[in-house]
Amino acid sequence: MTSKAEAHDDLPKESGPAGGWGSLRSIARITGMSDPSSDALQTLWRQNKPGGFMCASCAWPKPANYRAFEFCENGAKATLWESTKDRCTPDFWNDHTVTELLSWSDHDLEKTGRLTHPLRYDAASDRYVETSWADAFAAIGSALVDLPKDDVVFYSSGHAGLEASYLWALTARLYGNNNLPQSSNMCHETTSVGLTEVIGSPVGTIIWEDLEETDCLFFFGQNPGTNSPRFLHPLKEAKERGAKIVTFNPVREQGLISFVSPQDPVAMITGKETKISNQYHQLRAGTDIAAILGLCKAVIEADDAARETGAAPVIDWPFIEEHTNGFAAFVDFARSQPWAAITSACGLTEEALRDAAQIYMEAERVIGVYGMGLTQHTHGADNIGMLVNFLMLRGNIGKPGAGCCPVRGHSNVQGQRTVGIAEKTALIPMDRLRTLFDFDPPEKDGTHIVDAAEGIIAGRIKATLCLGGNLMRALPETDQLEQHWRAQDLTVMVSTKLNRSHLYPGKAAFILPCLTRGEKDEQASGPQYISVEDSFSMIHGSIGKQEPASTELKSELDIVASIAEVITEPHPKRPWRDWVADYSRVRDLIEATYPDDFKDYNQRLNTPGGFWRGNPARDRIWETDSGKAEFTVPEKLNALGFDDAEGRFTLITMRSNDQFNTTIYGYSDRFRGIEGTRDVLLINEADMQREGLAKGQIVTLVSDADDGISRRLPGLEVIPFDLPLGTIGSYYPECNVLVPLSLHDRTSKTPGSKGVPVKIEKA
Ligand SMILES: Nc1nc2c(c(=O)[nH]1)N[C@H]1C(S)=C(S)[C@@H](COP(=O)(O)OP(=O)(O)OC[C@H]3O[C@@H](n4cnc5c(=O)[nH]c(N)nc54)[C@H](O)[C@@H]3O)O[C@H]1N2
Ligand SMILES: Nc1nc2c(c(=O)[nH]1)N[C@H]1C(S)=C(S)[C@@H](COP(=O)(O)OP(=O)(O)OC[C@H]3O[C@@H](n4cnc5c(=O)[nH]c(N)nc54)[C@H](O)[C@@H]3O)O[C@H]1N2
Ligand SMILES: [Mo]
């Protein structure tokens, strides 16, 4: 149902059709967060609607034809988690030292509530103490002024809006480096690099209308039920239209099996359920290359057969000839790989792969959806290349209802890249920055987050400033980071809640608390909009209306500008205070820097469904070296960085339904039936028997990387689970202690979090 008329209005009446207050309250209840304020409920009602507030959780697009409740259970959780009435004030530190808090869980740390005051670490008492904003900025400025420019890192997690992010990137460059790693370095960097190589676009090619027109979706390693639940609406509608869905995933994820009502307040009342996947293929972790090759081989064989009988071709030959490069080499490779090699690599039968290929061949318009199951592998870019090979066989890129759909993570992770948060100088229009701001931008490429982590461990990086995020938990190689992080001269974290990274203060350390997106951002020219870009490259305005959690909070943009003011010289072309006073002036700068993407930015800010910044690949314009879309031949049949060995398992590090990355809302992964704990090892029963393990037994996972480093995660309860042989699962972020920093995608350096070699030790 759509309800445009109500979008800008207050909450619906108590007894309105789809539930009004009642349903909002029930949504709040199922999130397990008691007694939300009416301010928070108001925010939920305005969530993801034009003129409203854009969910700070995932990057799933916000349709123009929105529903009464344009949020999901997990988006509601994110909003209510931020809107908590709990406060972590400076008094909290009267009772706790940093050392003591190290024994607290991630959940308990964030549960202390919203941070209310700027804080400085006091080494003598091992506590954070209240400081003034002015003193904090002055101290940050004097610490940075003495450091070699290359030794300072400006990290951002994908939360902050386009305006603050643009200024963050500018700040780093004015300071003197391109050290702008982002959370996507651990996430979809494989897409940014891998997809660009093959189709010349770092982002997906589909938009909302394609979902409405497609007749088939193939899912590889993306879990919409938990990570982008609003995706379930178009999936349900597609199914009702007769579209088919085929899934490749080692884990049987509930959201891809059937759409169960709790995600949707309307269906929650009617109790209707829709079957999602027509076929579900549980391949071994890290073996999508083999599985997709099998699909391609079946298509090629079907085309051969059609040629012999004079039937219509199966392959889209005009597309191949006009638009692609490397087809012959790819076909040779596919023909040269025997079915037995393919099936033994992925653990699926030839029949299963042929059945899936049959659905593909019967469909005119196919979308390939993927997530971390493809990107977080050492040969992740090869995974993406194979998926693109598969789509291109039948011309499924750049036509209505078809395309490539990487599902992004953080709500503005893609947008931050669009406005200059990038360590690679080639991606940045430096000449425009030079003219606009009258400086010489640094020419050297900056640091990727994996390089930054290596630099911290080696003592090379001296300061890390974080615009959001929680690197101590999000990065691999936890033990080493914990040992070396504190040796830095300066750590600065712009945060909303306490997290584990705060417990590793540098020699000087500051926590700078900021407004959330749902909160009123009042500046000299009035209340401010910010904007974000979603997974379909749509830009949306967002305005917060809730009362801020504390009068001391500053907006992210203000904090960024204040840091810039203390580390750069005053200059008439950089009127930081004027920009803070009126964010539309920053949007003008973004438009001046990226005129094609952001034409008429301020005027189009509240376009329903967002405004599209375009994507040449969607129009079959390939911005690759050859000017064509590239078929690629993978190096091997799996995406893993290791071979099979006795006792070695492939660990996938999983998200539960009760977390957003390192923010742990609670201990209920209800779609997987795991309650009350996160310390679990999910394993196939046959593997359990072979290893001599009993249900409920406590075990230790041990790194089985061939680098001689001891990495251990004890205390995991064995749970028999429907997984392929040799693939086991346990939760992220806890498992990061097992992931070597060197285990990453070869081209993009995205950590291989879905293919970690481990052994199981009893006890
Ligand atoms: N509620 C909630 N929403 C979120 C997040 C969250 O933590 N919680 N995180 C946000 C962020 S930053 C991101 S990047 C996205 C992440 O969203 P997703 O991309 O969905 O990430 P994951 O849940 O880590 O893994 C996706 C799926 O890959 C499967 N998988 C693992 N290994 C393989 C493999 O080798 N092959 C295949 N085919 N599948 C595999 C897993 O079983 C899982 O179902 O979600 C965003 N949204
Ligand atoms: N093993 C393993 N490791 C992984 C992954 C995996 O699947 N497996 N996934 C990877 C992925 S996809 C990602 S994206 C990274 C995530 O890495 P990060 O983005 O670094 O981590 P988050 O958990 O999203 O950050 C949470 C913190 O952000 C702060 N925060 C929340 N909202 C705001 C806000 O509005 N403004 C500001 N300034 N701060 C805010 C809060 O203090 C909160 O504690 O982790 C990666 N690490
Ligand atoms: Mo992510």
UniProtKB/TrEMBL annotation:
InterPro entries assigned to the protein according to its UniProt record, in alphabetical order: Asp_de-COase-like_dom_sf, MopB_CT_YdeP, MoPterin_dinucl-bd_dom, Mopterin_OxRdtase, Mopterin_OxRdtse_a_bac, Prok_molybdopt-oxidoreductase, YdeP_MopB
Chain positions covered by the region annotation Disordered: 1-22
CC terms in the record's Gene Ontology section: membrane; oxidoreductase complex
Keyword Cell membrane (UniProt): no
A Gene Ontology biological process term: cellular respiration
Biased composition, class Basic and acidic residues, residue ranges: 1-13
A molecular function (GO) term: 4 iron, 4 sulfur cluster binding
Domain of life of the organism encoding this protein: Bacteria
This protein's UniProt keywords: 4Fe-4S, Iron, Iron-sulfur, Metal-binding, Molybdenum, Oxidoreductase
SUPFAM superfamilies, per the entry: ADC-like, Formate dehydrogenase/DMSO reductase, domains 1-3
Domain Molybdopterin oxidoreductase: 114-565
Residues annotated as domain Molybdopterin dinucleotide-binding: 649-755
Cofactor(s) needed by this chain: [4Fe-4S] cluster; Mo-bis(molybdopterin guanine dinucleotide)
Gene3D superfamilies: 3.40.50.740, Dimethylsulfoxide Reductase, domain 2
Family as reported in the entry's similarity comment: Belongs to the prokaryotic molybdopterin-containing oxidoreductase family.
Entry protein name: Formate dehydrogenase
